[in-house]
Amino acid sequence: MRQSIRPGAPLMNSRQWAEENNMSKLIPILAVMFSASAFANTAEGEYIARIADCVACHTQKNGDEMAGGKRFQTPLGDIFSTNITPDRQQGIGAYSYEEFDRAVRQGIARDGHYLYPAMPYPSYEKMKEEDIRSLYDYFMHGVKPSAQKNQASEIPWYFSPRWPLRIWNGLFTETAAGTAVAQDPQQNRIMRGKYIVEGPGHCGACHTPRGIAQQEKAYDSADPVYLSGAMIDGWFAPSLRDLTLADDELQALLHRGRSRHSAVAGPMSEVITQSTQYLTEADRRSVSAYLLSLNSDKAHGDRVVSSERAKTKNASGNALYFRYCSTCHAIDGKGTDYNVPSLVNNAAVNAEDPANLIKVIAWGAETPVTKGNIPYKMPAYQGEISDEQLRDVVNYVRGAWGNHVEPISEQKIKDVLENKH
Ligand code: HEC
Ligand code: HEC
Ligand code: HEC
């Protein structure tokens, strides 16, 4: 996916950037183009668009920003996100505020058709009206219009009538949660975090399991299934209810894509690059406070399945680890602070479903791109080692240094790597 509104060269400070881009000459021109008040309004909306990550889904690789065209697989067939730039013909330039609000919070387009829930309106439904207003100002005045055409969905005609979606909505979406204000500052922080995660942040879209109709099984932390972990495009988005990350580690991860002991790979990288790195410090603290408030006792003890078999000797895996991994992840599995993640008590290593662990070793990984941080790379081993060896090294790290998860079979490796995401 194109990431053109992410910051430029990571190590340049803003003054260097301004010089490089000849800002001194540009400023007077910009001042004429935007009145100061238009600037102020769209900045708020731009922030909301960031935390709601509209760009991630509404921008196609090499396409114009927010001009849609990204493909989504649904059980019925593929659909495409649409052009939401202010272009009047191809985009949403003709949307009134009320129509925009109805699309974002209720999933109903301007012409009255129901949107597929690939658009996360069941979460956006919880967003405050003032935030929707700021978003609208930003989309109408802060986003560059694009005449990129929308693509028709590939859903077979007999499924195409969108009326079943109305029934879907009646069954599965909830009404907006009330917003109460507490006296205790920590409580307020948790409530703000809850708002971001459950509303604009739509974290449940990946971290909450889905039911038979593809609906997320819950949209609110009152239900223990909410954020309890789910497969998404062949990756496992782990439970956020029993994180073993400390508060500062979690905040650093959301901000910089890596922290002292951890890093992420796969679809979460993009979430950090496009969205969470922009959270203000206060909002980052709130998200962390909320997520850690969900922690069950599980997090502090037996999150991993103990197994006798995992503890049996694995000479091949041990040798492979020393040959291929220990230079970076260290002999004790603890990596290097801030650079190479620790594999001890690591969510990807200890997940019941080893998909992420297998993919990262086979295809390599890179820490998410964030402002001011050079990404660190891990090499890809597919082709270098056989599936059998891959199994051995996977089982080694899943059984070493106090990790003790069920070993996996070679067939599991083959199954996971078939899914090319
Ligand atoms: C997880 C992916 C995803 C995210 C995030 C997302 N959208 Fe969408 N959106 C879609 C898809 C897919 C469609 C097309 C659905 C359809 O055709 O039924 C869509 C459709 C829309 C439409 C209807 C446009 C039309 O063609 O009339 C609007 C408006 C819209 N999105 C606005 C937004 C805004 C604003 C945000 C951020 C607050 C956002 N979307 C975030 C996936 C997403
Ligand atoms: C597009 C899907 C997707 C969305 C949306 C998403 N996540 Fe994730 N998340 C993942 C995946 C996949 C992983 C596993 C990454 C790995 O194994 O390296 C992950 C991992 C994480 C982790 C690391 C857990 C650990 O113990 O190491 C945290 C924390 C997290 N996500 C928080 C969030 C928050 C907060 C949001 C909402 C702002 C969010 N995620 C939205 C897919 C997603
Ligand atoms: C050249 C240094 C290097 C080597 C060699 C290396 N890694 Fe990595 N590894 C990294 C870096 C850097 C990351 C962080 C990338 C990211 O964001 O996931 C990483 C990430 C990982 C992760 C994902 C952690 C997470 O939380 O998402 C796992 C698992 C892993 N490595 C295991 C291994 C294994 C097993 C080997 C040997 C087969 C290996 N690595 C070899 C540098 C290395």
UniProtKB/TrEMBL annotation:
Write out the GO MF terms. electron transfer activity; heme binding; iron ion binding; oxidoreductase activity, acting on CH-OH group of donors
Q: Which Gene3D superfamilies match?
A: Cytochrome c-like domain
Cofactor(s) required for function per UniProt = heme c
Primary location group: membrane
UniProt: heme c 2 binding residues: 203, 206-207
Tell me which UniProt keywords the record has, alphabetically.
Cell membrane, Electron transport, Heme, Iron, Membrane, Metal-binding, Repeat, Signal, Transport
Entry's cofactor comment: Binds 3 heme c groups covalently per subunit.
The entry's heme c 1-binding residues are 54, 57-58
Positions of the Cytochrome c domain:
40-143, 188-295, 312-401
Cellular component aspect of the GO annotation: plasma membrane
Q: Where in the cell is it found?
A: Cell membrane
Residues reported in the UniProt entry to bind heme c 3: 325, 328-329
| PANTHER family cross-referenced by the UniProt entry | ALCOHOL DEHYDROGENASE CYTOCHROME C SUBUNIT (PTHR35008:SF8), BLL4482 PROTEIN-RELATED (PTHR35008)
State the protein's name: Alcohol dehydrogenase
Q: Which organism is it from?
A: Duffyella gerundensis
